[in-house]
Give the backbone structure.
Amino acid sequence: MRRRTTRALIAALAAMLAVVASACGTKNPSAVGDGNVIKIGAWYPLTGALASFGIPERAGADAYFKSVNAAGGINGRKIDWVVKDSAFDPQQTVQVARRLVDQDGVVAIVAANGTAQSQATFPFVLDQRKVPVLNPLGGDATWYQPARDGLFGLQTLYEDQAAALGDWVARDGAKKVLVVHSDPAAFVNVAKEIGPAAHKVDPSVRVKQLKVKFQTSDYSPVISKVKAEKPDAVVMILASAEAASYLKEAKLQGLSTPVYGYAPVAAQSTLTLAGKAAEGVRAVQLVKSPNDDDPAVEEFRAAMAKYEKGQPADFITLWGWEAAKAFVEIAKTIDGPVTSKALTAAYDKAKAVDTGVGPVLNFSTDNHLGTRDVQKVVVRNGRWESQGDFFTPPTRD
């Protein structure tokens, strides 16, 4: 009888502990932070077709965090940046987010990659756990209009990049502009912003669209169509590999029309794939050129060589570096424990945050996208070079 009673008591205690453990598991164990360590997390496509973006972006951010830790951390606290593979899959990213928040106990998601992937985590990370998502690489206007609690970005929207291109081609004197873009809706929506921006500069500018099937590799018929239109300028809203295919085929067919592109075009891969055919291409970028003779860019190149040997110091790694540096600059302003709540409050009032490699960032309680600015870059002697300084595109209607 006693044995049965004892077993019953043990079973009851075990059940009670399970309930308690389960209840504890529904809260972020490090939401209040660690006095000596700031634990943050991120997801990247480290495997699969998009690993060519995820791996260097992670490397750039990691190089900055390592350099900060080597110098003593953030106000004496070391950064523990936990990174997991999302495989660029939204469903897998949700599982990654759960592990980062509930098991690893991160106080924020910092510099993570992917628009659809990050968005899939918002109901859990932002709404349920109240863990901020800071400086993600990706995003769209719905993320920031209106401002969403705990979500802060620094990447100029693609639509604003397109507006900058429309303004640029018109100011360069183009009267007939052809926008060559991929056919998915996301590319179409970006391409639509070029015409209105050009017309604000010169209402007489004619802007036409040429839709191309996504991931097309044979650009021979595309170039034939472009030649038939006889444009003064071509704007490419294409992925880097497709932009390179366009440029190579244009050179083969003797087409020399000036070419402009948005940030994905301004990549080292475009130069590698297109070779000399890329000479003279103009584009807008989110950061300065990694080739610039600028102290902040030189610091980036030196850190990449020291902490991430084998990874190129290019635009993609510089995106990650900028996102990491912006986080550190804002976290430094926190007086006391670095918690999820403290980070959100710090971002809400962050002003004039200067990473040196990107535009100056300004946030407020009703503005969670730190900038709309872009940088002009041009291919000269086989490498991207910055032209002028960051500028603000015209306001979109």
About this structure: Residues 331 and 343 are 7 Å apart (CA to CA). The chain has two domains: 37-155+293-366, 158-285+377-391.
